[in-house]
Specification:
This protein is α+β, with helices and mostly antiparallel strands. The chain has helices at residues 26-40, 42-45, and strands spanning 49-51, 54-56, 61-67, 78-84, 95-96. The longest helix has 15 residues, at 26-40.
């Protein structure tokens, strides 16, 4: 007897389809939502990051720009990512610096 290769070819369900996975878990749902956002925007999928300086507003946040590397991509050329490390929701507005190398067409706006 020897080792037979048919077990190596076995395909189980994808981890998202695992019947033991709790899909009602808040972390699971948040991760899935963030993955959909990342997939929908080219700038979020690149490795080009630039630190965003806080010009005005609360401290305690990490902010950086994700810049697109594909000028033909119709999704936004840059996305501001802000991570807050507080245990309470903050509603104060903050202003961040724009990347020096970000080219914007007249009329483009940030929300």
């Amino acid at each position: 007897g020897g080792v037979r290769p048919w077990l190596m070819e076995a395909n189980g369900p994808h981890w998202c389809e695992d019947p033991l996975l709790n899909r009602d878990n808040e972390i699971f749902r948040t991760t899935k939502a963030l993955a959909r956002v990342r997939k929908s925007c080219g700038a979020l999928r690149t490795s080009i990051d630039q630190r965003a300086e806080i010009i005005e507003g609360p401290i305690g946040q990490l902010a950086y720009w994700k810049l697109s590397d594909d000028p033909s991509d119709p999704t936004p050329a840059a996305m501001l990512v802000v991570l807050s490390f507080t245990t309470v929701v903050r509603t104060e507005a903050a202003k961040y610096s724009l990347p020096d190398n970000l080219f914007l067409w007249e009329g483009q706006a940030f929300v």
